[in-house]
Design goal:
Distance between the termini: 19 Å
Order of helices and strands: HEEEEEEEE
Structural class: mainly beta
Length: 119
């Protein structure tokens, strides 16, 4: 998603730099890494506080396309990125405290690794 978008690429680089320096800002940043084989899907259940900005970024290793979808507990889609890149960003403000389902899918023919970042 950052491909061809210098501002989004800069944001992703800033987040990675802040993580490596331990700069957490006003909130806490969480990070996880995973590997997906061809056609595989990961599902993450993440809690966010209502009325506070929620951010989720997925940064792939560049080896193939990855798709990201974010939905609330009722299954209502909040964000969906199925473009040709292996980077995605979703920012939103939940109305209330709750869990959100982040789904990462590898539709490509090769293994891909990615890092998932949330606040």
């Amino acid at each position: 998603m950052a491909e061809g978008d210098p501002a989004l690429a800069d944001l992703a680089a800033d987040i990675e730099a802040d993580l490596s320096q331990g700069i957490l800002g006003e909130g806490q940043v969480s990070s996880a890494t995973s590997r997906l084989g061809p056609g595989e899907t990961d599902e993450w259940r993440i809690a966010f506080n209502g009325q506070l900005p929620a951010e989720i970024a997925m940064i792939g290793d560049g080896s193939g396309n990855l798709d990201m979808t974010v939905a609330d507990e009722a299954g209502e889609m909040i964000c969906h990125d199925s473009g040709p890149a292996d980077r995605a960003y979703c920012g939103f403000v939940p109305l209330q405290n709750g869990f959100f389902i982040v789904t990462i899918t590898n539709p490509g023919p090769d293994d891909s690794r990615y890092r998932l970042l949330t606040n």
